[in-house]
Every structure is written in structure tokens, then in C-alpha cells.
Specification:
This protein is mainly β. The radius of gyration is 22 Å and the shape is globular. Strands 1, 11, 12, 13, 16, 17 and 20 form a 7-stranded antiparallel β-sheet that branches. The protein has a 6-stranded mixed β-sheet with strand order 3-4-7-8-9-10. Strands 2-19-18-21-22 form a 5-stranded mixed β-sheet, with no helix packed on it.
């Protein structure tokens, strides 16, 4: 079982001191991302020549400062799906901040206050990667595995152990042997095709406590709850969106001996080798994530992500009605969204109970409260 942390959507400013925590809690600390030098970028997607290298990199990301992950991919010249999401969120924020200043200059009944929000060009260019709320604002990435999105390109592609993987909203597609000529076929292959040697493994998601947001923030299938904590400033209302997501999927098991084609290519230097580790089966994986977003409404109209000086998620949970885990807590700084990944491993397990505390430090005179989200199957 892996215990790790993932955080997103950051804009740097002064770091605040971490909230003090009980000695019984497991504190997950972020660190600088220091990946292997053996990761390759071929100009389109990342290449991990062994399954171990991909797994090690993915596990490392879960404990890593997201700024350093982005710095690493920038140095490679690689733009990940997560980086696109972060930039889109930042571009949306810029547009909303400009609009907020404009709105404040209008009289209360001005019809321009009710005009629909128009996303900036960068968001429109990448809109197929995101889910949007009813106000047309970015709600989330479509690919549910947040860790993986740091290693896949805009089209969800990454090459692992000689096979091409495409991560999508509802499935993972695998081109066995990594034949690039089949990439264009993926959009039309929705179930495993043995003749084409394309495997399609579904991703299933469960949101505990299948309730909808009172704010109408997420009108798709998230179980987000909105909890308001309001100050005396008449212009602003602050609230949380929270959700607890359990994702199940099948991951390959590999033979330990690679196969290289055509036969004898390793012996004749003029012949190009295509090498891969044969997939000999699949094993079920479970990922358990808790997510918190801090939102700010302006003038009752503009609804935008807000970066508090710090925000904290503390989680305790049960597996298969067993004993409660120790609390796992993380305090992030200057982030609109905080993700904590508590489990990613095999075998598939059933999380039957959980208790999640969400809190954030909001500018005075707003009142910062701790919201508890408890659930049991």
C-alpha cells in the first residue's frame, strides 16, 4: 500500500507556517521531484523503457512539490496534461480577476452583470480536456487519475515497457508493442480488439455520499459538497467544494524478459530494434483520493477558485470495515485545489468508512471553519 500526496493549481507567494497537528497523525511532507535520468521524451510523449521506471516515477510524484514536477517537465520540453490544466486554470483566473474589477464599476442592475462568462482562448483550445460547471468555469480534468496526468501528453499518451498507453476519462487503451501507426485508430476502438492488438480496460469511479452540491457547483457526477463560511465583507462569499473519489482499474503484469523485433536485431547494428516487455496478465488497482477546493463568489455573480494562505485535509478511513487508520494530514500553501492520495495499490480494496476534515485560512473578517465530511457504505 502506498501513502502519498498530490496537490495542484499553484501560484507562488510567501509560504505560511504549517498548522500544528496531533502527534497521532501521519503528516505527509512534499519534497523536490528528482526523477531518473533514464526517462525519455521523443517530442510527442514520455518513454519509460521498463515498467519499474514508470512505477517509481509515479510513486515519487505522489510525495513531491508540484512546482518541481512542472519545472522538470518544462526542462524536458514536455507539456503534460496536468500542465495544460494548470495553465488553463491560471488563464481563467486572470480573465475573472479582470472581469471582477470591471463588474465593480457597474451599477447594481446593469444587464452586463448577467452576461455569460467567455473563457480565454487557451481554455477554449483545450476544452475537451476539462469538465465545466453550469457557469462555464473549469471544474476538473476529464482523466480521473491525477498523478498520471503529470506523465501523459495532451492526448493521454505515454509509452511504458514498449507499449503505448492512452489514459481517458472512462478507460485505458493499450497498443500492444507500441505501434505508433495505430494511434489514429484509438478514437474508434472502444473495446479490446485482438486483431489490432489494442486492449481497452475500463476505469470505474465511485463517489462516496452521492449527494449534489447546494451551490450547484458540480452538476456532473462528483459528490462534491459546498460548505460556506462567510465574513462581513458584502462583496465576497467563501466556500468549499469537497469530494472523495475511489477509482478502480486494471494494470498490466509484465514478463521480466523483454522481446525485441525483428529477430536478430540486437546482433546486427544496422537493424532497428523494437523492444517491449510482454504483458502476461492484468491485476486490479484501487486509488483513493480526497479533494478540497476553496471558492470565492464576488457580488453574488462571479464564482472563482481562491488561494488561501493555507488549507488542510485530515483523513481517517476503514478498509473492509476493519480498524480505523491513523489520521493522515497535509497542509498546503497558496493553492486553490488540494488533493491527497491515501491509497494506490493492489489488490482492489473496499473503503467502507471515512472521516475527512477540511479547513482553510481566509482573510479577516471572514470566519474560517473546519468542515467534517463523514461517510460509511
Amino acid at each position: 500500500m502506498f501513502i502519498g500526496l498530490v496537490i495542484s493549481i499553484s501560484q507562488c507567494s510567501e509560504v505560511q507556517p504549517e498548522t500544528s497537528l496531533s502527534s497521532t497523525e501521519t503528516i505527509i511532507n512534499e519534497k523536490k521531484f528528482e526523477p531518473s535520468q533514464n526517462i525519455e521524451f521523443n517530442g510527442e510523449y514520455l518513454v519509460f523503457r521498463t515498467p519499474e521506471l514508470f512505477d517509481q516515477t509515479l510513486n515519487s510524484i505522489r510525495n513531491t512539490d508540484p512546482h518541481s514536477v512542472r519545472d522538470w517537465s518544462d526542462k524536458l520540453g514536455f507539456t503534460s496534461m496536468r500542465a495544460i490544466y494548470e495553465k488553463a486554470y491560471e488563464e481563467q483566473e486572470k480573465s475573472i480577476n479582470a472581469l471582477e474589477a470591471e463588474y465593480k464599476s457597474y451599477p447594481p442592475n446593469d444587464p452586463r452583470l448577467k452576461a455569460p462568462f467567455e473563457q480565454p482562448a487557451f481554455v477554449r483550445e483545450n476544452e475537451t480536456l476539462f469538465a465545466f460547471n453550469e457557469k462555464g468555469l473549469i471544474a476538473q480534468q476529464n482523466v480521473p487519475l491525477y498523478d498520471v496526468t503529470a506523465l501523459i501528453n495532451k492526448n493521454g499518451l505515454v509509452k511504458v515497457a514498449g507499449h503505448l498507453f492512452q489514459y481517458n476519462k472512462d478507460n485505458i487503451k493499450i497498443i500492444m508493442g507500441g505501434d505508433e501507426s495505430k494511434i489514429s485508430m484509438l478514437a474508434n476502438v472502444n473495446e479490446t480488439n485482438k486483431k489490432l492488438k489494442i486492449v481497452v480496460n475500463p476505469i470505474t469511479r465511485k463517489w462516496v455520499d452521492q449527494s449534489s452540491s447546494p451551490e450547484g457547483r458540480y452538476l456532473y457526477d462528483w459528490s462534491a459538497k459546498s460548505m460556506e463560511f462567510v465574513g462581513s465583507n458584502v462583496n465576497y462569499t467563501f466556500y468549499y467544494n469537497m469530494d472523495v473519489q475511489i477509482t478502480s482499474r486494471s494494470e498490466p503484469m509484465y514478463d521480466t524478459t523483454p522481446v525485441c523485433e525483428p529477430a536478430g536485431c540486437g546482433e546486427v547494428r544496422t537493424m532497428d530494434c523494437t523492444c517491449y516487455f510482454p504483458i502476461i496478465g492484468y491485476i486490479g488497482f484501487t486509488t483513493f483520493e480526497s479533494h478540497m477546493e476553496v471558492r470565492r463568489k464576488t457580488l453574488g455573480l462571479l464564482d472563482v477558485g481562491y488561494q488561501p494562505s493555507s488549507s488542510t485535509i485530515t483523513v481517517d478511513y476503514k478498509i473492509d470495515n476493519g480498524a480505523w487508520s491513523n489520521d493522515h494530514s497535509y497542509t498546503s500553501h497558496n493553492l486553490s485545489n488540494t488533493y491527497i492520495t491515501l491509497y494506490d495499490g493492489t489488490p482492489m480494496v473496499n473503503f467502507t468508512c471515512g472521516s475527512h476534515d477540511f479547513s482553510a485560512v481566509i482573510p479577516s473578517p471572514a470566519v474560517s471553519t473546519v468542515i467534517n465530511h463523514s461517510w460509511c457504505d
